[in-house]
Design brief:
Shape: globular
Structural class: alpha/beta
Distance between the termini: 44 Å
Strand content: 5-15%
Number of domains: 1
CATH superfamily: Protein tyrosine phosphatase superfamily
Number of strands: 5
CATH architecture: Alpha-Beta Complex
Largest sheet: 5 strands, mixed
Strand order of the largest sheet: 1-2-5-3-4
Order of helices and strands: EEHEHEHEHHH
Number of helices: 6
């Protein structure tokens, strides 16, 4: 088992990978591969979530950060919490996931634009890994609002 088998897996760089909900075996693989932090942006949903992901991640010696982003209502405050989590996680091997890597690619692309100098083209390319433009209007609006805030700052 490998982290590369996580649903909608995407390697950002040597320290950051993203994906959908990992299985218990995939989280064990992440620990074995030297990952130190797991950031989960999904809400708790028995259809997708592990019974005790936080407990498992901690048992494996990794730091667990849970920012439950409501699918139908992503908030600016959620992104601010993600930025805070990334401010420490960026120095560690980090697995960032949600249910299918939709929330994560949106949040990480915004983070990378704001903090890592990514262009909109680079950010859009990451999201295109799992999204089709216009597929989820609430998310299109969320991304555009955050980008507009960045331009005003």
């Amino acid at each position: 088992m490998s982290t590369h088998e996580i649903y909608n897996f995407k390697q950002i760089n040597d320290h950051i990978i993203t994906g959908g909900q990992p299985s218990e075996a995939q989280l064990r693989a992440a620990a074995a591969e030297g990952f130190e932090t797991v950031i989960n942006l999904a809400t708790v949903d028995p259809r997708y979530s592990l019974p005790d992901e936080a407990g498992l991640v901690r048992e494996l010696g990794m730091t667990y950060v849970h920012i439950p982003v409501e699918w139908s209502n992503p908030l600016k405050e959620d992104f601010v919490a993600f930025e805070a989590a990334m401010s420490t996680a960026v120095h560690h091997k980090t697995l960032i996931h949600c249910a299918a890597n939709y929330r994560v690619t949106a949040f990480y692309s915004l983070y990378a634009m704001k903090h890592l100098g990514w262009t909109a083209v680079e950010a859009d390319a990451l999201m295109a890994h799992v999204w089709k433009p216009g597929e989820y209007p609430v998310w299109d609006q969320f991304v555009q609002e955050r980008r507009a805030e960045m331009e005003r700052a």
